[in-house]
Amino acid sequence: MSNTESNATLLQAMKELSVQWQHTKGFWRDVKADEFEKHYLEGFPNLVARTSTAIDEVTALLRKVQLDCE
Question: What is the pTM for the complete model shown?
Answer without folding.
Answer: 0.78
